[in-house]
Write a structure and sequence with these properties.
With 300 residues, the chain is an alpha/beta fold. The strands form three sheets. It has an eight-stranded mixed sheet with strand order 4-3-2-1-5-6-8-11, sandwiched between helices. 36% of the residues lie in helices and 19% in strands.
Length: 300
């Protein structure tokens, strides 16, 4: 008998890619604001309501819901949306399960390497390192605490938190496609110094990691979902331009211009440190795309 997985953030690129990977072996359900399909169920974060049928008989929840971090400037109102869409959605799931005395095998939540802070250094961060002290760090801290509550309140047997790096995919709104377009029209350039590290992961590997977190009961706690090969913004941009056979004729885009355009959120692209995936490798996971060139080639 197939087990049932509930996925939040159904309209996101990761959820859609993950669904294609899981649909053969699992019954899939989705929480969405506007139900369109039979296996979709509505929820309303503002009024703290959800269709309880979404949770009945569910074995695993994969929590991907969250407003886009880079979609808009970080006004105080936008920051509240970014935070609440992640934390309050997890709290609604938890309270609904408790209210109806439902128990799940695992709660698997997305998080981000932004946990370590928007800063550039040669330090290689692992899951035991302390968080940073900026807005993204605070979001990740509360995001992961909301996930841990499923274990603390004995609602889930196991909790896993997957800290995402920059996801490489062919999504029209993804980082990969945006950089490809700038290179195609001869305006590609390093951002700021170009020396900031860019922890990355191919979407195939990311979705395989989520699948592994469902299957492997030994996977619990926090894992950095980044590829083994590190790169900088300069290294990434130049490799992609070379593979596209397009010259980079523009000088670096000064950091102050990016800050003027994006405000506080500019730190996401102007800063970046190396992040270790050793814990993931030690769990037995084998990357499909451990090297950047092969990852990029699969998406060109």
């Amino acid at each position: 008998m197939k087990k049932t997985i509930l996925i939040t953030g159904a309209n996101g690129g990761v959820a859609q890619h993950l669904s294609s990977l899981l649909k053969e072996n699992y019954n899939l359900r989705y929480l969405t604001r506007n139900k369109k399909k039979e296996n979709e169920f509505e929820w309303d974060l503002v009024n703290k309501k959800l269709d309880i049928r979404a949770l009945q008989g569910v074995n695993h929840i994969i929590h991907l819901a969250g407003a886009g971090i880079a979609d808009k400037r970080w006004s105080q109102e936008r920051k509240k949306v970014i935070l609440s869409s992640r934390i309050e959605s997890a709290q609604l799931l938890l309270e609904s399960l408790k209210k109806h005395s439902l128990h799940i095998d695992s709660f698997i939540s997305a998080s981000a390497v932004g946990y370590y802070g928007m800063k550039t250094s040669d330090k290689i961060y692992n899951e035991m390192d302390k968080p940073g002290d900026d807005f993204l760090s605070d979001v990740c801290i509360q995001w992961e605490q909301a996930a841990d509550n499923f274990l603390l309140e004995n609602v889930a047997d196991r909790v896993a938190k997957v800290r995402l790096g920059v996801v490489l995919s062919d999504s029209p709104k993804g980082v990969m496609e945006i950089i490809k377009k700038t290179i195609k029209y001869y305006v590609g350039a390093n951002l700021g110094s170009g020396k900031q590290y860019m922890p990355w992961i191919h979407i195939d590997d990311l979705c395989n990691i989520f699948k592994e977190a469902v299957i492997n009961t030994e996977i619990s706690g926090t894992y950095n979902a980044v590829a083994p090969e590190p790169t900088t913004n300069k290294g990434f941009t130049h490799l992609l331009a070379d593979m596209m056979d397009k010259p980079l004729i523009m000088p670096n885009i000064p950091g102050f211009l990016i800050k003027l355009a994006l405000g506080e959120s500019a730190g996401m692209i102007l800063e970046g440190s190396r992040v270790s995936c050793d814990k993931l490798l030690q769990s037995g996971y084998k990357f499909k795309y451990p090297q950047l060139r092969e990852a990029l080639q699969s998406l060109l």
